[in-house]
Design brief:
By secondary structure, the chain is an all-beta fold. 0% of the residues lie in helices and 55% in strands. The chain has no helices and eleven strands. The strands form two sheets. Strands 2, 4, 5, 6, 9, 10 and 11 form a seven-stranded mixed sheet that branches. The chain has a four-stranded antiparallel sheet with strand order 1-3-8-7, with no helix packed on it.
């Protein structure tokens, strides 16, 4: 399974960006997909995640500003980020969980996409 993340960039505080993550190479639908971020000198943290049955989970710091959604294309998710602040500056990573075809599942990570918010 490969994850292709895109949509990062440079934006001014208060602006918006939309990240996309498309998974390919699996015959299964995802169990869960989500976005994590890592700022310089900090640990990677969960931003938002969605399960196959539609349950969503958000970090407290992004609630009300970010929205994770599933795309019409299979195994695609989006992260709409509004009211961005410099504190949101980080490398954002897509993560996905897929069935392994036997008795469990496996986690996959995409390449990071840089989000920089200027003040």
């Amino acid at each position: 399974v490969q994850l292709q993340a895109s949509g990062g960039g440079l934006v001014q505080a208060g602006g918006s960006l939309r990240l996309s993550c498309a998974a390919s190479g699996s015959i299964f639908s995802f169990v869960g997909m989500g976005w994590y971020r890592q700022a310089p000198g900090k640990q990677r943290e969960l931003v938002a995640a969605v399960t196959s049955d539609g349950n969503r989970n958000y970090a407290d710091s992004v609630k009300g500003r970010f929205t994770i959604s599933r795309g019409n294309a299979k195994n695609t998710v989006y992260l709409q980020m509004n009211s961005l602040s410099p504190e949101d500056t980080a490398v954002y990573y897509c993560k996905a969980e897929f069935p392994n075809g036997r008795d469990g599942s496996r986690l996959y990570w995409g390449q990071g996409t840089q989000v920089t918010v200027s003040s």
